[in-house]
Amino acid sequence: xxTIPSIFNEKITQYTAVGGRERIACTGLSAVxxxxxxxxxxxxxxxxxxxxxxxxxxIETCAPHYDIEELSGRFPFVRFIIPEKEINLGEQINIAALxxxxxxxxxxRNDMKIVTGGTSRRMAQRLVNIKEDVDxxxxxxxxxxxxxxxxxxxxxxxxxxxxVSAPVINRRKMQSVFLQPQNEGDLSLYPFDGVGIYDxxxxxxxxxxxxxxxxxxxxxxxxxxxxxxxxxxxxxxxNLKLLYDGELPVENSTIEESYRRFYLxxxxxxxxxxxxxxxxxxLPFYRFFPFARNCGEDIFSAWKEFQESKKxxxxxxxxxxxxxxxxxxxxxxxx
Length: 335
Prior knowledge:
A hairpin with a 2-residue loop joins strand 10 and strand 11 (173-179). By secondary structure, this protein is an alpha/beta fold. The protein has helices spanning 41-51, 68-74, 89-99, 120-126, 200-205, 216-229, 257-267, 288-294, 299-315, 324-334; strands spanning 15-19, 29-34, 56-59, 78-83, 104-109, 112-116, 128-130, 142-144, 148-154, 164-170, 173-179, 196-199, 234-244, 270-272, 280-282. Helix 6 (216-229) runs parallel beside helix 7 (257-267). The protein contains 10 helices and 15 strands. It folds into 2 domains: 6-244, Alpha-Beta Complex (Spore Coat Polysaccharide Biosynthesis Protein SpsA, Chain A); 257-334, no CATH class.
């Protein structure tokens, strides 16, 4: 049984791993499959095999699986991860980050098709910038572009859907809207449906997804805001297009307890920037009373939650590069 490193700051659910004995290639990019029920998987894995990913990690549900033995024999490059209990989106991707051996991993759904983007090697090549000012006699070192690269997404009619997320403030609450993908490198607040190509080292370094958040929407919001607050980049690859075979997922952005944790970690911290001192963020005491009035909890529960988040901010205070207002301005300035 693996355990998530302390940087993730969460305990991982126990799981069983089946298969995955072979490696197809050595391109630097592996695939992570998040499974929806009712999909015929043999044809899906055949298509994935053609692309030439280094390895394939398939995150299963905890329900009985009667096809895994057959599939692992037919596709020995696929490693099936079976958790002992149901796990949320964030923990699925966290586990995958530990299992993959490549520099990058591509999270996709089993009801999706990769329409354009090329082979795994071609995808990986687009993720790096080759430095042009190096000595030709020296080894060329690839410079990684970003934490996460998001694709253009289409529905089953091959119509491009709004999937590039941007932050908006509605009635003093931070929410997200989805914009039409337009230009190479367009910023996205977070990867829609969790789908995208992640840099494994950067992903683990920033703590992955917060699995204590129960709703996928707020997990994604927390991941994306934290990435931008800490100076990371999540952006569009216009050449990478994926198609949903089935119905499009609908995000539940209801304001509930997950929002409180998201707020305290991402929106409430105050960033201090001074040319004569070290830049840092803190969660000041004056943020507590507005939080307590609106959180729907008694004063003691609110204080406990506030203190836990304050400790988290203190532990990570030097990683902040800006505050929530600066993050929102990235999209305001691009319009």
